[in-house]
Design brief:
The protein is an alpha/beta fold and 355 residues long. It is built from eleven helices and twelve strands. Pfam families: Iso_dh.
């Protein structure tokens, strides 16, 4: 029997509610599959923890997480805690210290009724964004000079190393080759004359090793337009940390909203545990009301199963999400239904058993 040890960080707001439903799915899989078992340990880190202790996570939090097979994160963010603290001192800290340099965000239309487009079908919007996840514009490098004075100057430095840029681009080429799909690079070389010119050059250099992969390269403004006007042109997309963050929110907007937006933070070498999360945020305005959409959190369980090389379960979870989206009686409120968070989870495991 395979046992996977999972660290739970429910975080803030609706994070606790949606993570509960993801754990419900894992426990149900355990009942259905004699070859799998899961163990869990919950860590109370997040903004409320910060307000009590002055820290987003324990000082030795990284060491505590190292022994797990995966981290399952709910959401971070809460009024009274600056966003740059809640993000950098928990989520980004885990990403960087565990070298989770690959961020996988599927942009997949699971039900055509969910897209704001009148003429798009499921087959028209189905691609994967591979986002560099460890450096770039989120590296935290910079300086704040003459604070509060008339000559105040702020420098925010994007860091693009040869190692970091080449490995994410190579990962994307490998994925495109494996899936026999096209690969599109998104940058901004016409304006960012160092970082993005470097990115473009590395993309071209690495591409010489993959002559079988058909490639495209777009400026990020053009790519943003095409995400909306012609999403069918994309199959695999690779881009920088900041651009990937922004573009995937556009992707969520054209496929049903943030309640269906999921993300996997991967260390491909499996030297450290990878982290899985819905990317919708903590939504403190609806926390505790039992109306949060848990489907993004459940979709991230599908990504976790793929990471554990249990692809059959990953596919079954995704098929069950597609099935639940066809039954308006059990849809959460943000998708036009009236089901509570727990009711969506309960119905989901019923569908999973049928699958």
């Amino acid at each position: 029997m395979k046992n996977f040890n999972i660290a739970l960080i429910p975080g803030d707001g609706i994070g606790v509610e949606v993570i509960n439903e993801g754990v419900k799915v894992l426990k149900f899989i355990e009942k259905l599959d004699d070859n799998l078992s899961f163990s869990f340990e919950t860590f109370p880190w997040g903004c409320e923890y910060y307000l009590e202790t002055g820290k987003m996570m324990d000082e030795d939090g990284i060491d505590k997480l190292k022994g797990f097979d995966a981290v399952y994160l709910g959401a971070v963010g809460y009024p009274g805690v600056p966003d740059h603290i809640s993000l950098r001192d928990l989520l980004i800290r885990i990403r960087r210290e565990f070298d989770l340099y690959v961020n996988l965000r599927p942009i997949t239309l699971l039900n055509e009724e969910l897209t704001p487009f009148k003429d798009k079908r499921e087959e028209d919007i189905d691609f994967l964004v591979i986002r560099e996840n460890s450096e770039g514009e989120y590296s935290g490098a910079g300086e704040w000079l003459y604070r509060g004075k008339p000559e105040e100057v702020v420098l925010q430095t994007g860091v693009f190393s040869r190692k970091g840029t080449e490995r994410i681009i190579r990962y994307a080429y490998e994925e495109a080759r494996k899936q026999a799909k096209t690969l599109t690079s998104v940058s901004k070389g016409n304006a960012l004359n160092y970082s993005m010119v470097f990115w473009d050059e590395v993309f071209e250099e690495v591409g010489k090793e993959y002559p079988d992969v058909k490639t495209y390269s777009y400026l990020v403004d053009a790519a943003s337009l095409y995400f909306v006007s012609d999403p069918g042109r994309f199959e695999i997309v690779v881009t920088s940390n900041l651009f990937g963050d922004i573009l995937t929110d556009i992707g969520a907007g054209i496929t049903g909203g943030l309640g269906l937006a999921t993300g996997a933070n991967i260390n491909p070498e499996k030297k450290y545990p990878s982290m899985f999360e819905p990317v919708h945020g903590s939504a403190p305005d609806i926390a505790g009301e039992g109306i949060a959409n848990p489907l993004a959190a459940i979709w991230s369980i599908s990504q976790m199963m793929d990471y554990f090389e249990e692809e059959e379960w990953g596919e079954k979870i995704l098929e069950s999400i597609i099935a639940i989206l066809k039954n308006k009686e059990f849809l959460p409120r943000d998708l036009g239904g009236s089901a509570s968070t727990s009711e969506v989870g309960d119905y989901f495991v019923e569908l999973l058993e049928i699958k």
